[in-house]
Design goal:
CATH superfamily: HIT-like
CATH class: Alpha Beta
Largest sheet: 5 strands, antiparallel
CATH architecture: 2-Layer Sandwich
Strand order of the largest sheet: 1-2-3-5-4
Order of helices and strands: HEEEHEE
Radius of gyration: 14 Å
Strand content: 15-25%
Amino acid sequence: MSEASIFTRIMTGDIPGDIVMEDDECVVLRDISPQAPTHLLVVPRKPIVGVQGADMEDEALLGHLLVMARRAAEQEGIAADGYRCVINAGRHGGQEVPHLHIHVLGGRQFTWPPG
């Protein structure tokens, strides 16, 4: 990525963000435009453009992001009733920020298909 994403700028402290948990590999923060009562983003510190930019060297990191999504759901109290993890990839997939992130949504009943 040529320019630092909004997520990188939050992680470096250049702009504020509501970080709910973090470790050496990623941060979990609240979405500024929530689409559910609980809407978190799990963002790797490594600036991968999206799943379309990940490769086999990122395998362990991708698994770690999913474990952090589960931990965040537990911390937020949405794990017992269920939650949704979403990764948007590319323009047609609805990806708005060119930095891989997992949406963790919960706190209400979801339907399928999502739309």
